[in-house]
Every structure is written in structure tokens, then in C-alpha cells.
Amino acid sequence: MSKQQKAEYLVTKFLDSLNKSTNYQIVAFEHLDTIFSTYSDERDFEKYKNDSLKVDSIQRHFKHKITGWSLYVIYQGRNSVGVLGKHVYVCGIDKELSKCFGGNEIVN
To answer: CB atoms < 10 A from the CB of 101, how many?
Structure first.
């Protein structure tokens, strides 16, 4: 199973929990996106954030790490507060692609 397929499966399970059944229809999934760490996630950043020389050093030595994944889904059904309609969610998935830890509705 590809990473995209695993993510789609996890998001489908999340939507099942919102809709309490299969009473919804997925319209589309978007491309799976990687969430990377930033230098401000580094252990010493908070301690030295007001010291520009230390921050520069942290930035120079920083290596990005995958911290998770995001996947947009468009579906017809109920949202997290029970409103029936067409909804767009961005869903967060852990870096191992083993759990969808929730979604946020994108409101236009």
C-alpha cells in the first residue's frame, strides 16, 4: 500500500467517526503533504531565541525531520458539529502513517 493510500484509509476512518456510519461520500483527496520540523522546534531554541548568534548557529546546523503528514479531503456528509453539506478538511497524520489525529475544517 502506498503512503497516499495509507493516508486516505486513515482519513476515511476519521470521517467514519464524524458521520457515525458510512452516510457520507468522499468527493476527492488531495496530494499527501509532508510536515517538516523547523529550527524553532529545536530543543535549545526557546532558551536562546533572543540571542541572534545562538539562533544563527541553530539555523546553520539544523536538519529537517519529517514530523507528520497532512491530507486534504473534500466530502459530502456531516462535519464535526453535525452540519450536513460539502466540507473540506485538512487532516493530520503521524509520521509513521498509523494514525489520523484529527482534522480542521477549511471554511471559505
So the answer is: 11
